[in-house]
User: Which sequence fits this backbone?
């Protein structure tokens, strides 16, 4: 296959030799011809030597590398990549009778920059973040069904809000393969939940908290639990299975609270230990008493860009300060940040400030991150985003 060549400035190939998958626009010396957004381009160094093939896009990241080998980018290429992704998850024991919820493709972490695929039972929800992935969506959908051995029967494309709006691709959400077949109940570690990929946030569920939910389950026995920012109740039904005395779920979205109630009912019909409230987090934390001895804080990303980092850190400090103020002695606090631009160190500093403000004794008993189906390519540290602390508060 022949692709338009993009030549780098001298020395700019160094990060690529270490397999970093991004080429910034400032590193480019020359275009052989003007590529279209979403085209596959060939990247060469200043001595005309082949370096990589990748998707071209207008913006500060000009090329996202697909491969460091000069190979055809055809159906077999995409299928091989998806096979590797599927094989990794299968070989690590993630896909079982009890667990049919998992992220099958995590962008750069699966050598497929710009692509996210989450699987719920027999439906895969696909999100393209780049024009390049948008153009190959049908090929990807077909390959997904093949590599899953037909475990995946439906592929829903949900990219209206994830593609760069300037590219104006006119993407529409909808099924690329199959259709809605009433199989929107998925299983995570044996617990059931409804997924609303049509209207829900992201692909419909926060798949990245699976392992951290299990830790909540382990520490819940006999405790009074507050699940703040509950979305569809993931942490709540784990806490209930773990033997919590009571579980209160809070989210500002009324739709999320409805789904939380439905999901708790699916797993624990008629169980009166659970109550859910549609309310703003700060309001609830202000008005609540001191009855909780396990609190989960899993807020939305407070910072989406570096320039709002300071405000975000203040936000994390204030939020955590409220929890430190109210949690019972001997309480366990689970606190998270999913902002990619907030580093582990900065997040810990914000939580430290909140703890110091409360004057309580606080110990870190566990540190959390994203699970194995959200792998971080070691050459692409930007792929790390989820961090959390489990704290014992006296
Ligand atoms: N813990 C969830 C994911 C949380 S996502 C899970 O395990 O699935 C963040 C949630 O915070 C969203 O559901 C959003 O509706 C909610 N949210 C955003 N701002 C909020 C606020 N000010 N008060 C309460 N909830 C809020």
Assistant:
């Amino acid at each position: 296959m022949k692709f338009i060549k993009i030549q780098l400035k001298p020395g700019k190939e160094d990060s690529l030799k270490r397999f970093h998958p991004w080429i910034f626009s400032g590193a480019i010396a020359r275009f052989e011809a003007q590529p279209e957004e979403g085209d596959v381009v060939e990247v060469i160094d200043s001595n005309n030597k082949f370096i990589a093939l990748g998707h071209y896009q207008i913006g500060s990241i000009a090329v996202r590398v697909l491969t460091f080998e000069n190979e055809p980018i055809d159906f077999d290429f995409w299928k091989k990549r998806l096979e590797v992704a599927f094989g990794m998850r299968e070989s690590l024991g993630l896909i079982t009778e009890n667990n049919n919820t998992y992220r099958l493709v995590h962008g750069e972490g699966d050598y497929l920059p710009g692509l996210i695929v989450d699987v719920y039972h027999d439906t895969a929800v696909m999100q393209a973040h780049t024009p390049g992935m948008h153009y190959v969506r049908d090929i990807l959908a077909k390959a997904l069904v093949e590599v899953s051995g037909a475990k995946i029967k439906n592929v829903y494309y949900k990219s209206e809000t994830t593609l760069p709006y300037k590219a104006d691709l006119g993407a529409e959400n909808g099924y690329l393969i199959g259709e809605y077949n009433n199989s929107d109940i998925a299983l995570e570690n044996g617990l059931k939940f409804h997924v609303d990929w049509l209207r829900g946030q992201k692909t419909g569920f926060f798949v990245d908290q699976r392992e951290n939910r299990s830790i909540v389950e382990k520490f819940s026995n006999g405790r009074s639990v507050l699940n703040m920012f509950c979305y569809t109740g993931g942490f709540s039904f784990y806490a209930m299975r773990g033997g919590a005395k009571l579980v209160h779920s809070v989210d500002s979205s009324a739709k999320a609270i409805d789904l939380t109630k439905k999901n708790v009912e699916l797993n624990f019909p008629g169980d009166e230990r659970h109550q859910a409230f549609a309310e703003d987090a700060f309001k609830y934390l202000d008005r609540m008493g001191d009855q909780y001895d396990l609190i989960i804080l899993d807020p939305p990303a407070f910072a989406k860009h570096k320039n709002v980092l300071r405000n975000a850190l203040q936000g994390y400090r204030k939020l955590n300060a409220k929890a430190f103020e109210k949690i019972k002695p001997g309480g366990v606090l689970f606190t998270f940040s999913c902002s990619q631009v907030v580093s582990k160190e900065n997040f810990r500093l914000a939580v430290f400030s909140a703890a110091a403000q409360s004057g309580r004794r606080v110990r870190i008993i566990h540190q959390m991150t994203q699970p194995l189906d959200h792998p971080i390519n070691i050459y692409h540290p930007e792929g790390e985003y989820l961090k959390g602390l489990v704290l014992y508060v006296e």
Notes: Residues 206, 209, 229-232, 234-235, 251-253, 256, 280-281, 298-300 surround S-adenosyl-L-homocysteine (CB under 6 Å). Residues 4-67 form a domain with the Archaeosine Trna-guanine Transglycosylase; Chain: A, domain 4 fold (CATH 2.30.130.10).
